[in-house]
Design brief:
This protein is about 75% helix and about 0% strand. It has about 110 residues and is mainly alpha-helical. The protein is globular.
Length: about 110
């Protein structure tokens, strides 16, 4: 997948480019251009970690991008739901319930 085809990078540019161009640039070049490409973890593992962090932080808007990305990177729907259940005990019940409800919406058509 080329940079111009990557929905995460394109979404970052579209959402941030006008209001926070430097943040959009850092998102593209550092986060997705460097960090996500490092060989120390697979993209699958990075996706699962990122999704767990979003559950813990209540990042429901970013779940819209990262849950489908996790599926493309090899994480299954069942693993995402299991991660949310697991996170209930580490990040709190309300954040897990909110994430599960958001996952239901996001994963419904996947």
């Amino acid at each position: 997948m080329t940079d111009s085809q990557d929905p995460v990078r394109n979404a970052a540019r579209a959402k941030l480019g006008e209001i926070a161009p430097k943040l959009a640039e850092l998102t593209d070049e550092v986060l997705f251009g460097d960090i996500w490409e490092r060989p120390g973890l697979s993209k699958r593992d990075r996706s699962l970690i990122t999704c767990a962090a979003l559950v813990a932080l209540g990042g429901t808007e970013q779940m819209t991008t990262h849950f489908p990305r996790a599926l493309r990177n090899g994480v299954t729907k069942e693993e995402l739901i299991e991660m949310i259940t697991h996170m209930a005990f580490y990040s709190g019940w309300p954040s897990a319930i909110t994430a599960a409800m958001r996952a239901r919406e996001i994963l419904a058509d996947k």
